[in-house]
Description:
Layout: H1 2-6, H2 8-32, H3 41-101, H4 107-113, H5 134-137, H6 141-178, H7 188-195, H8 197-235
Helix pairs in contact: 2-3, 3-8, 4-8, 6-8, 7-8
Amino acid sequence: MKILRNYQPEIFGIIVALAVLNIWYLSSIAIEEAVVPKSYDYLIRALTVAVGGFIGAFSAFWLKSHEEEKKDKDKLKSALNSALFVLIRQINAIQCIKRGLDKFKTPFDRGLSLPAMKPPDYSSVKQDIDSLHFLIDNDNAQILMELTIEQERFEQTINSISIRNEFYVNEVQPALSFHALNGRPLPLSEFEEKLGERLFQGAINGAVILYEHVYASDVSLHEKYTVLREVAKKSFPGEKFVAWTKM
Length: 247
């Protein structure tokens, strides 16, 4: 049925052509058999040409309108698929980071033992919000706003990694090496005493913020992906949209 719908203008054009030919043929027979006066020959032929021309022009107009409508529809579907693909890339990026964080369980290990992480450049993994403005007209303005917020959350998460890395590499790690604290099972109080409150608390708090951003982003990205895919399937029933598979 979907294939037939895509070729409706062509099918209609064929039917119209056959109908015009049939009218012309029957009128010729009628004249030849003297069913109608010979004087009506010119009138019937003129009428046939006029009707055929009108229907031909109408068919061309309908075909053009159909093609433009299909082009607009494909553009909207492409925008939704692109948005879903960006979410999938962001999900995979966060999950990759999260797997590294999961190895460190305590605040101390996260703050002082978690090595600096250098994720790839994700600046291109960004939603094209302008291409999704049609969602407002479809009563889906809420998901558009949520996608905007989600993009900002993702960027903030990646930025929190960079901030923590810079602090850890430039200040915490040199202090740990200077006081020979790397890998030593010492009481927390001794670490705090030798590192000083600013470095010790800064390392712990920086890791807390990093973990909060990553874990919150992991949950919210899945939620936005699920909602957007439901909107896409509802807006374009029967069409295919990219699906996320856990890696």
